[in-house]
From TrEMBL:
Gene3D superfamilies: L,D-transpeptidase catalytic domain-like. Pathway: Cell wall biogenesis; peptidoglycan biosynthesis. GO terms for biological process: cell wall organization; peptidoglycan-protein cross-linking; regulation of cell shape. It comes from the Bacteria. The keyword Transferase applies. PROSITE patterns: LD_TPASE (PS52029). Residues 1-38 form the signal peptide. This is L,D-transpeptidase. Coiled coil: none annotated. One of its GO terms (molecular function) is peptidoglycan L,D-transpeptidase activity. Pfam families: YkuD. Residues 79-208 form the L,D-TPase catalytic domain.
Amino acid sequence: MRDKAVQIFRKVLKSPLSLALLGCAAVVALAPAVPAEAGIRDMLNINEQPGVVPTKQESLLPPEFRPQPVYFRSNEPPGTIIINTDERFLYLVQSDNRAIRYGVGVGRDGFQWSGLLKISRKAEWPDWRPPAEMIQRQPYLPRFMAGGEGNPMGARALYLGDTIYRIHGTNQPQTIGHALSSGCFRMVNNDVMDLYERVPVGTKVIVRQQAKL
């Protein structure tokens, strides 16, 4: 089944229409496209796994999703966070058309959004209270889980405005680079801890979602 899905996905990538659409995309940063394997994994159903603690090897991301300085043209001031949901990248704007780029996991179809918010609160090893909608979809989830290594919220959380959305760590590093969350933005714990130290409460966060044709 998986091999058949890969063959179909490769045929789509080779079609003239797909190449035309890719050529018309307005990419500001010099960043690689999401790997073809991401498209395959996005079709999978990966539920939350409270209590699972990933190993160091499992938390090692592919090179393209590891934190790195990149060329990034933006009119936003240094310190601004820009998330591109289609690329699966979070950019922390620096001076001189530069940014620090991190790989992130984003919302699945029906849970993606775009907008402008600010970081309203920060927390270390946050507790987790799954919303009622998530519990309805995954009844096995606990109603409350204290912060820790096996907590799906991970090592740090940056709360976005007065919404339910957050930039947070994860105990599922395999989901980075894919669209599988309920609208929050996931990072591996080392990356979210690094970002946490770099940005204060009040930081502007811009979430961009590319228009679909």
